[in-house]
Every structure is written in C-alpha cells, then in structure tokens.
Task: structure prediction
Amino acid sequence: MIKSIKLTNFRSHKDLTADFENNTAIIGKNAAGKTNILEAIYYSFITKSFRSTQSSLINRDSDFMKINLDFGTDKTDSMEYRIKQSGKYTSRTITLNGVNKPASGIIGLQPIVIFVPDDVRIITDGPSFRRNLINSIIIQTSKDYLRALNVFQKILNQRNRLLYSLKNRLTTSRDQLFVYNLQMSEPISVIYKYRDDLIDFMNKNISAKYSMISGSPDKVHLDYLNSLPKDKEDILSSLEAHTDADISAGFTIKGPHKDELIVSLNGFSSRDNLSRGENRSLSLAIKLTEIDYIDLKTGSPPLLLLDDVLSELDSDRQKHLLEQSKKQQTIITSTEIDSSIKGYKVIEI
Ligand SMILES: Nc1ncnc2c1ncn2[C@@H]1O[C@H](COP(=O)(O)OP(=O)(O)OP(=O)(O)O)[C@@H](O)[C@H]1O
Ligand SMILES: [Mg+2]
Result:
C-alpha cells in the first residue's frame, strides 16, 4: 500500500506532497497535474513511464527531479528516485530504505494495474502495444521472467548490431552469431513459458469478465502467435536457419520481440470490424483479468490507478470497475467530485 509521495521537480510539480488512504481521489482541473501524480507512482514501481521517456519527467525549468515514496503493508518502506540531466546524459539513482538498488530490485515490490483512457489502443494499435502489456504484467509477478527479458534484450541488441555490420559489410566475421543464438535460446524459452501461462489464464477467465461488462454471453479468445518455436533446442535451430535472412535484413526478424497477440470476440478478430464500444469493453476486460492474474501470482491484489476513466464509462461499466477496486488500494483521478467516489479521500490540486 502506498502511504505518501513527495515530488520535487517532477513534471509540473515543483514541490508536492500527498498522503493516500485505501481509496483516494485526486481531483483537479485539466492540466492541474493529476496524471503526473499517477505517473510518478507508476514510474516508481515499474521504473518506466507509461507515456514517455525518463528525461521528460524532469521539470522544464530544472535539471533534476526527485520522488520520495513511503509504502508497505505493516512497516513502512521508503524509496527515493533521483534523476539528473547533464547535457545529453540522464543519470538515475534508486534507493530503497537508504540502500542503492537496480531497477530489477524494485519491480514487483508493489504490483500495479493502471487504467488510462488510451487503453483501447491495446486492441486497436500495433502488436508492440500488446507485447508491452504482456511484459508489464509478467515482470511484476516473476523475477525469472524479468531476468530472461533483460538478458534477451541485451543479447538481441548485440546481435542486431552485428547483423547491421554484416549487412553493411563493416565486418565479415559471423562466428559470434552462433554464440548469440545459443545465449538467446534459453531466455526465449523462459519468456515463452511465462507468456503461455498468462495467455492460458486469460483465456480461462476473460470471457466471464467481458460478459459481465456487456451483459450478454460473449466469448473472447486470445491467440498468441509465436514466431519461433517454444522449445530451447528448436529455438536454436530456428535461429540458425534464419541467420542468412537476418543478415540480409540487418536485424533479428523473429522472436518474442516480434510476436503478435490476436484478440477475438465471438470468433471475429479485433483486426476486423469490431465497434468502438466492443474494443473499449475488450480492453477493459483484459485489464480486469490482469488484476486477477497478478492477485493469483503474487498472493495479493495489485494497487489500482484509474486515470480519468470513470467519466468515459457508462454507469454499468463504472459499477463493475469500482466493484473490483473495493478489495485493494485504489487511486483515481477525475476533474470533478461525483457520487461514484463516495467514501474516497479527496485530494484537490
Ligand atoms: N517536464 C515538464 N515540466 C513542466 N511541466 C510539465 C512537464 N511535463 C508535463 N508538464 C505539464 O504538466 C501539466 C499537467 O499535466 P497532467 O497530464 O498531469 O494534467 P492532468 O491534471 O492529468 O490534466 P487532464 O485533466 O487534462 O488529464 C501539463 O500542463 C503539462 O504541460
Ligand atoms: Mg490527465
């Protein structure tokens, strides 16, 4: 549970302190800085913003920013982020209870599910939105996955640099590619194992969530299209078999960084013509299932951040979402106080 936050030069907030209760509403006019507060909370535990790069988090008139956060269930832990900009370079330090930590030591400490008006893009936009969603869920529930993803990403970058050099004849030595293929196949198999587990869970539970929202017995299905096989040895042979094509392209064509997730409603892929309302309900159903997955895997329900989403939902959908939020700490933003946030602590900014 988050107890309080202090922002120094975080975007529009030069100096802001807020204390949270189990249910808290942040109320303010457009551009008052409501989303900025949720972004600071999200950033603190995911170590990435949901809307931009790190350097844009620093107040425009400053060259550094700081976030201090108190959280924990019984005793209080405190965390501090400092980001400093010197010319082109951005440096960041994170401390937990006074001890320096890498990002990987922070992710998962307080699992979070955020709802933003843009969530519909999970359905309507390109596959990278769906892969990012999948990653953001699983990194919070498994250190194993986080490690595999980091290792994969690092080797992928090295492999792509070499492929680029080979394509452009900056080098002719391709022996190292086999080493990368070998090093990659293990983390890729781990990534696939966890993604399978999440998709399985979603397929078992998402239709019920969707039907609750739509009020009719609908069927939602997710299809994860893996561009490489799932078994470690098969991954290696497939990478080997694709090496020439990768060199011609100058980058790694296949892998977990390229896979697609197809969402279908009653047998129709969302890439065909679902209505705006159906796409919205699908994205909401995915997020609601995400809450249950994190709850199951971590043993406690995640913190919910709802950014201005209530106003976009009709009263039935509002009710379902707020029903979910009773169990766990929930922080919402809105431009006005209305009956849906009865019982919430109100912070006006
Ligand atoms: N790096 C920055 N330095 C200073 N101000 C910033 C920075 N980044 C964003 N802002 C400003 O912060 C202000 C508040 O943004 P925020 O998105 O939090 O508003 P909001 O209260 O959520 O508004 P809305 O109701 O429209 O969603 C905006 O005016 C934006 O221009
Ligand atoms: Mg906002």
Observations:
- DSSP finds eight helices and 14 strands in the chain.
- The first strand starts at residue 2 and ends at 10.
